[in-house]
Write a structure and sequence with these properties.
alpha/beta; about 170 residues; about 40% helix; 6-stranded mixed β-sheet; single chain; 6 helices
Length: about 170
């Protein structure tokens, strides 16, 4: 049986490793190719719609460049103001295939601590400003939260898992 080929619209080793972890969890074997593509949204999306659009664009642009792939996947992490005008962090993942099927899933959302709120509100890039928070936290929960925000693993893994399951079992949804 021929292995399915997936093209992923990122060259991030971290995101590729999370995808491989999800595929291993689900016992799915795919040929993975990663490509650098544009999301056509801002580098730090600050609405859910912009973040979802970024994931769609990454998948669309990856598929355009790789016509032999069975499907393409786009991953985008973003932020959105919610209750009391505070930012939440989350991830959108989209799969597009050459037959026109499109499936997107969003991870859970996490209300960011005040330190991170100030960074985003000032227009600074969150990923470039995490070290001070890391130095401040001493307890295990704070360190876990710092790791979660820094590496975004729970968000990316959740959205990847949901999207891959929905895509591969699409006739059941």
């Amino acid at each position: 049986m021929k292995k399915l080929k997936i093209v992923v619209g990122t060259t991030s080793a971290q995101k590729i490793s999370y995808l491989k972890e999800v595929l291993k969890e689900l016992r799915i074997k795919l040929v993975i190719k990663s490509v650098e593509v544009k999301s056509n949204v801002s580098d730090q999306p600050i609405t859910s719609n912009e973040t979802k659009t970024g994931s769609i664009n990454r998948a669309k642009n990856a598929l355009k460049e790789n016509k032999d792939a069975d499907f393409a996947l786009g991953v985008e992490v973003g932020y959105h103001k919610y209750l009391k005008n505070k930012y939440e962090m989350f991830c959108w993942v989209t799969i597009l295939d050459k037959h026109g099927h499109k499936i997107s899933s969003q991870s859970h959302r996490f209300l960011l601590p005040e330190y991170h709120q100030e960074i985003l509100s000032s227009g600074k890039f969150l990923g470039d400003n995490l070290d001070e928070f890391s130095k401040k936290v001493k307890d295990s929960v704070g360190k876990y939260m710092d790791n979660m925000i820094r590496h975004r693993k729970p968000f990316i893994m959740s959205a990847l898992r949901d999207t891959v399951i929905k895509y591969l079992k699409k006739e059941e949804f």
